[in-house]
Structures are given as structure tokens and as C-alpha cells.
Amino acid sequence: MIPDRRLSSKFVSVEGVCFVILEEDDTSRENVTSPLTSTALEVVLEDVATLGLSTVFLDHNARAANNLARVALPVNLAETSPGTEDLGVSDLDEGDLVGSAESLNELDILGLRASLDKHAKIAHLKSILDRQLSLGSLGDLSLNLDGLNLNFISSVRHPKVSQFQSLAFLHALDCQEPHSDAVWDISWTATDTVISVSADGSIKHWDSTSGQILRSLPPHTLGIVSLSVSPNGKHALYNTIDGLTCLWDLENGEIVGKHESYARTGSEATEPSWSVSLNPKGGSYASTGGSGSITIHSAEPGSFGQRLSTLTSTRNKFGMQCRYSPDGFRIALATESGQMYIYDVQSSALTATFTSHAMAVRSIAWSPDSQLLLSASEDKRLILHDVRTSSSAGKPGSGAVASLSGHSSWVLSTDISPDGRLALSGSADKTIKVWDLSARAAVSTIQDTGEVWGVSWRPRPSPNNSAGAFVSGGEDGLVRWWRAAGAG
């Protein structure tokens, strides 16, 4: 694979992230013009690709032994198609993108070497598409493993085996009075009830034990496209196709806030909102739509819908979905172009831009600790991002730590389990998949009757370390409950 060099390798796994360490045999240096002078770190693309990882972190130990994630190189070549921007090299300490490729034909410009100041730079990789890798010169860069708690594994060709490899989910229940059109969004609430919204303009509140309707509202003229439920399960925020946003009190059944986002306020025209998200800390909500910006509104009854601020992205693309992080400190925006933006709520600053997808991102979901963001796209993939790898001034950064493939059509919906171990995805291929995020693998596939537009985990932690339960909604208008085999 690597000509004219004899290399021994070690494979390191740190919290699910793979490191590849190559050591050169001194006897193999006779044909090398710029020999490696010490232990070097480089990516073996052919081996790492078998893991299904979208990112491998490299530690060149340029400045300090504890800088474990200085440079990231996405390497998922098998799933990359011409015209995408999936591959790049980012300095995670500085937050700058130091190299990228817009097509497969340009990948041979990607590589790493050490300059005199021992910073990661771009070097030439010979015929990378044929897996003929030229390591170039790494100078005196070395890897110091002292003091690091690393788990060495024998081969990267044997990724972590999922503890959920025999996981099965059973169909537990169907709702008693389905919607007359597709369910477009759904949420399992903290009070153990379910809220669903539909293309028929209705919103329904369900009992999760019987599947019976607890409450419903008169249907709107147009479909409801977005839903956000408060962490305590007491309020549901929803939005119609034409931009009517309403706040529903789930305890008394009353609408306590209503805002027509498409109306004109004085001389200022406002666009119809498409996606809405409640601030988990209360008092406000976010919306996005045609401009690709995020608008923050008041969620207080006396001033509901009043504009508080606007967060603007660098490119005006249609906003498909916006979501507050569970801790309320960040807002994520997914767009029709496949780009995603992360904003800091307090400063309103754009802190990161992710370009992992080549097509529209239909759905995003945060991990419970607000550190990871999962995106579902029309490119048939789900990508897991680490938002802690924020890029300076919101420039495109790496951040992708896993790529999940297996759907044969658009991925329309996603969610992460309350313990952060599993993910759900619903697709236009009429299936629901359950993913083990640690193993980067699908552990269960459920065949549905139509496109699956909404999936939501039961927010209450599951007893006995079980996989828990979730709810789904799709093209047939039914709300379905599912539970892991053996779970109550």
C-alpha cells in the first residue's frame, strides 16, 4: 500500500475515535529522499475506511503532549462522490481549515508534513485515489504517549463490536385515530405523552399507554411542518407552512401564543418561518425559513412572536431546521445546501460551519450533553459532528466524527437517545434504522409502510440498561410506538 517503506502500525481507540500510528523501520530508508526521523503519525486511508469513520484525528504533538486532537482529516472515501466537499484538513487548535478538496480528482493535494515550526502543513500525496500514499517529510514530529490512557487494539479492520448487535424493536401500539394525511413531525414528551403534527393541518396529543387522543386542536388550513416541545413537556410550539407559529399549553389545552411570521410590521416585511425551536431555558424561541437566517422571538404570553434578534449566516440558503442545544447555549441551523451553522446564543456569534453533506439536511438532533450534533440528509447519510471543534469566525471546520450509511433514499428524520448511545433515522426508503453511535453501525432496521417523516425517543432513561422505546410517524398518518425486545 505504501511503496518503498516498511512500516509497523499500532491502532489506538480513544473514546470511539481511531488513531493510526506508523513507525518506520530504519532499514527501509535507502530509497526515501526525506526520511522520517522519529515516530510518525499518518492516516492509512485504505484501512481506516473499513471502519466507516468520517474523521480520524491526528496528534502530531507539535506543541504539547496533551494536545490530542490538533488536526483532523475526514477519510470516508468510499461514500464521497465528485463535486462534494467532504474532505479537508483542519487545525483544531487554531480553528482554521488548512486544506480541502472539492472533488475526488483533487484529493491528491491532501497530506501532512512538518515545517520548521512544527505546525501541520499541506504536502503532496501521490496517487491517493489508488491508495499509493507518499508520507512526505514529517521532520522531527513525534508522538508522546506518556501519561495518556490509550486502549491499543490489534487491527483497525476489527472495529468495536456493538453491544446492541442483536437488538430488536417490537411494534407496541398504533394510535386509535390517525391523521388524515402524513405525520410531518413528532415528539415524545417528558410527561410520557406524544405530540404529532400533520400535513392535514392538525396537531394531536396522545396517551402513550392506550394510543388514544388526549387533546387536539381544530385543524389549520395548511399543514404543520415543525414542532418543538418544552423539556418539561408542558408546552408545544408548532409552525404551519404559511408561517403561523403557535404555542400550545398542554396542561389546559389552550393556545397561549400566536404569531403570523409572514405579516408586515410597519415598513419591515418578514418572511414566513419554516422551522421553530423552543429555548430550553424558556422565554424565547428560534425560527428559520427562506432567508437562511435564524430569528429569535419572545415566547412570553404578552409579547409572543416579538423579534428579539437575528442570527445571519454567511450564505443565504433556505433554513430547513433550527434546534437549540439541550443546555440552551447553542443553536444549530441546517440548510438546503447541506451546510450547517452553529451559533453561540449569548454572543449571537457564528462559531462553526460544517460542510459534511452534499445535499439538503432534513433533520438535526443534539446529544443529551450538547456536545454532538447528528444530521440527516438527502444524500442518504447521517453525519455525527463534534461541536467542540468550533472553527474561528465560523469558518468551515472539520468536526465530523462519524458517517452512518445504509439508507437507500433521503434521510428525513433523526433523534438521539436520552443516554446518547443510540440514534434513530427515518427515511424515504420506508425504513427506520437504529444506530449504535459507538460502533458506527445500524443495529436494527424496521420496515414501515411509507416515508418516515418523524422519529422521537422516549425521553425517560430506560431501566436495566435497555435500549428503551421510541415513536414514529409517516406518510400513512399513523403514530406508532416501538419498544426494545425485553423492555417494558
From TrEMBL:
Checking InterPro entries in the record gives:
SKI8, WD40/YVTN_repeat-like_dom_sf, WD40_PAC1, WD40_repeat_CS, WD40_repeat_dom_sf, WD40_rpt
The entry's cellular-component GO terms read: nucleus; protein-containing complex
Per UniProt, the keywords (alphabetical) are: Repeat, WD repeat
Please list the residue ranges covered by the WD repeats: 176-216, 217-258, 354-395, 404-445
The record ties this protein, via Gene3D superfamilies, to: YVTN repeat-like/Quinoprotein amine dehydrogenase
Superkingdom to which the source organism belongs: Eukaryota
Protein name from the UniProt record: Uncharacterized protein
Lineage, top ranks: Eukaryota, Fungi, Dikarya, Basidiomycota, Agaricomycotina
